[in-house]
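in:
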């Protein structure tokens, strides 16, 4: 596990705990990760580390507890990653909806 995952997961958990709801039934989770663009990217689309599946796992771990009773209630998961545009902050946009 990357040394950056634990603090990042804690940030997700802190943001999730500020929501008014906690989900205990099937949900759909959509997440778009905005990552820093290197000076000379290998490709136009983000196709390097971090792996999108590892980002998704860390995200669900951070949401479990403060927003989701368990990550097993996620019945649909849509995750993508891309380079942040110059006017965008890096981070993740998350939407959790009852299924």
């Amino acid at each position: 596990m990357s040394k950056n995952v634990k603090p990042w997961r804690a940030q997700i958990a802190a943001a999730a705990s500020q929501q008014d709801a906690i989900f205990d039934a099937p949900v759909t989770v959509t997440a778009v990760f905005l990552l820093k663009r290197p000076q000379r990217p290998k490709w136009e689309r983000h196709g390097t580390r971090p792996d999108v599946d590892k980002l998704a796992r860390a995200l669900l771990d951070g949401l479990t507890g403060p927003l989701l009773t368990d990550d097993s209630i996620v019945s649909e998961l849509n995750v993508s990653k891309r380079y942040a545009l110059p006017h965008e902050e890096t981070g993740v946009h998350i939407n959790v909806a009852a299924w």
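note: The CA atoms of residues 5 and 58 lie 7 Å apart.
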